[in-house]
Amino acid sequence: MNLKQLSHMLSLSQTTVSRALNGYPEVSEETRRRVVDAAKRHGYRPNPSARRLATGKSGMIGYVLPTGASVDIDPHFVEFLSGLGDYARSHELDLVLSPADAGDEETTYRRIVANRQVDAVYLSAPRPADKRLALVNKLGIPFIVHGRSEGFDFDYPYLDIDNEGAFHEAGRLLVQLGHKRLALINGNDRETFAIHRERGMRRALATSGLMLGERHVCSLTMTEENGYRAARRLLEDSEPPTAIACSSLIMALGVVRAVRDLGLTIPGDLSLVAHDDVFPWLRPENFPVPLSTTRSSIRLAGARVAERLAARISGLEEGARGEVWPVDLVVRGSVAGAPA
Amino acid sequence: MNLKQLSHMLSLSQTTVSRALNGYPEVSEETRRRVVDAAKRHGYRPNPSARRLATGKSGMIGYVLPTGASVDIDPHFVEFLSGLGDYARSHELDLVLSPADAGDEETTYRRIVANRQVDAVYLSAPRPADKRLALVNKLGIPFIVHGRSEGFDFDYPYLDIDNEGAFHEAGRLLVQLGHKRLALINGNDRETFAIHRERGMRRALATSGLMLGERHVCSLTMTEENGYRAARRLLEDSEPPTAIACSSLIMALGVVRAVRDLGLTIPGDLSLVAHDDVFPWLRPENFPVPLSTTRSSIRLAGARVAERLAARISGLEEGARGEVWPVDLVVRGSVAGAPA
DNA sequence: TGAGCGTTCCAAAGCGCTTTGGCTGACTTG
DNA sequence: CAAGTCAGCCAAAGCGCTTTGGAACGCTCA
Description:
2 copies of one chain form a homodimer. With 340 residues, chain A is of the alpha/beta class. The first copy, chain A, folds into 3 domains: 3-46, 434 Repressor (Amino-terminal Domain), CATH 1.10.260.40; 60-161 and 300-325, Response regulator (Rossmann fold, 3-Layer(aba) Sandwich), CATH 3.40.50.2300; 163-296, Response regulator (Rossmann fold). In chain A, 42% of the residues lie in helices and 17% in strands. In chain A, the strands form 2 sheets. In chain A, strands 2-1-3-4-5-11 form a 6-stranded parallel beta sheet, with helices on both faces. In chain A, helix 1 packs across helix 2 and helix 6 packs parallel to helix 7. Chains A and B meet through helix 4, strand 1, helix 5, strand 2 and helix 10 of A and helix 4, strand 1, helix 5, strand 2 and helix 10 of B. Chain B binds a DNA duplex (30 and 30 nucleotides) through residues 2-4, 12-16, 18-19, 22, 25-28, 31, 46-56.
């Protein structure tokens, strides 16, 4: 069933039928009712390819996925996707993943914009002065950044959590508990979120005249193994930290293992706080010692990004609105006063 | 730059230019060279929307993503995606994720097929007599199943690993080590992979006249917490198993925690084998006691599925070829002879 | 009463590609 | 040498929608 057939059986022109269905004003209410009714009865669905060719709109949102033999997709991605998908579903939006050579995403962004394959895109894991962001901004396609960049002379729409505030809180808690030697096991510090976390932590320490020593900051991709290695290195130092803040639950698994291997205990010898993006399959309360966390559901963020993307596509949202979500500090058994 | 302009500047018809670029025979080699050359020089890229309208082909592969507030996307998905994306990238294939209401994927499959939004789809986590599979088969869109179903009177193309063989091997190893009371902590047994694993395990035991008791099989979604709970229940039983096979590394984390909480040791009190899909962020050799695993890279599977999908789209692959990959059994420190 | 106006509809021209059905001219073939 | 063949090209008809630029009609109002 296409427009032609439908309009023919209604003895109307394609124009009128099209307008009736798309809510244009120049069609009488009665006619509109007839048309809408017939369309529903015959299960008419406009062909998206044709509509796309005519309008240039695709009804899809895009994401450029960096790939490569040695490139790992962040496991957080799947949770973000859950939220995004959940919203997108209710609006019949599809998501297009365009794989790109990690390191040369530019070509792919240009392609999907030039081809008008998607109506909007989102970026994630931005870095300071992220080239992708500058590009997408220049290309003029609606977009939202999940996270933030830094060092641009233009504003842009984003959704981020208060990473600095979160780790400031975590740091403050640990300091208040009397810890003097703190360490941070961070994610890749070329990404802004990691920079913000470190900044928050430093700020918390500075308030009490403390410093985060050079050797007490690790920046690594967030795997269990890296968490383990970092913790070993820190704890076997001559002046080991008595408290660690950790950027992910997965790394925290490694930290816990290292602590055990060294015959130490949490929170007796080491207080531990980690950031929790809220995975359904790994929960901080189920750690051997329930883990204190800075918590923010990445899934909700996914849903919100989808919502704002949809709003931008339909023109309801404009401008460079930034949105920063507060982060909960959830205190559990893994933190205690500094050892004497 | 569109076809019209390009053909005009070459003083050729659109027909000829189109044919030259698409490799049709009825154009002289010299003309073809001229055309291809000019196209490249002017960066001409055919508009995919137009091409799609004309041909009905989209150059994308689809996946229907079950979503919902209480639906969690499997973390394996992201690894599969890495492989898929890696292959897709090299062939300029995009992936369309169409979110669907979990439980009613049918509507979405019908929509994407009717709209010709994608040239092929893949299904994952199939169940016996999976309705999606029957549907997609009926709708006539090229597809591949990642995993297998059972109980259909038709064949279909799939890629699966030898789950039964893997757990048969694992079971056999444990039996050979003298274990008599074995248990299986499995994934959701409405999915075929779990059924196959259980079958393999039972077969291994049967060979030695052993049985897998009703109470010794758990079927749960694969979270750390469920692994913990299942292990507690098993180990606190009056006749606890001396060996456990576990369907995922994530659950194995929970098993290890339970063992510790109960003051037991691996492999002294309990031998443990788990299936490893090969995550970059959690490796079996880094478990407190290095974990024996049945191993198969889900990432490679993703790449292979993409490859076969591409082959089916271009007509290079046909028919209902099933492909079953063997699984490695990797023995590490977590297994030992049965306690006396 | 006839100019002016708003409402409601329509025919037709795109959107940019592929593909069908020729047409032309050079080249074989009997 | 006429008929047949074939390579190489083209015009035009789609694909199914949106949108432009009217046209027809019934009203109002001077």
